[in-house]
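[agent] plan:
  1. take the single chain provided in the ticket
  2. run structure prediction with default settings
  3. attach structure tokens to the ticket
  4. add a short note for the reviewer (M.T.)
[agent] executing step 1
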Amino acid sequence: MKGTITKYFDERHYGFLIGDDGTSLFFHELDAPLLPQPIIRSTRVEFEIGEFRGKNKATNVRPLSGGAQ
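[agent] step 2 finished; step 3 output follows
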């Protein structure tokens, strides 16, 4: 899936992104090791969906390659 980071809390090491389908998902920095630091709002990403505490979360979050939209 593809989406955009909407919030990131440096001091807490987690954030939220919104998928291109409108779904809002939580992610932890451990789920995004390939994102450049600091993690910046509005960064376009690719991700997979996993589960955390019974709810969906973004996993394997990585920057879109080659500028793909």
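[agent] step 4 note for reviewer: The domain at 2-67 is CATH 2.40.50.140 (OB fold (Dihydrolipoamide Acetyltransferase, E2P)).
[agent] ticket updated
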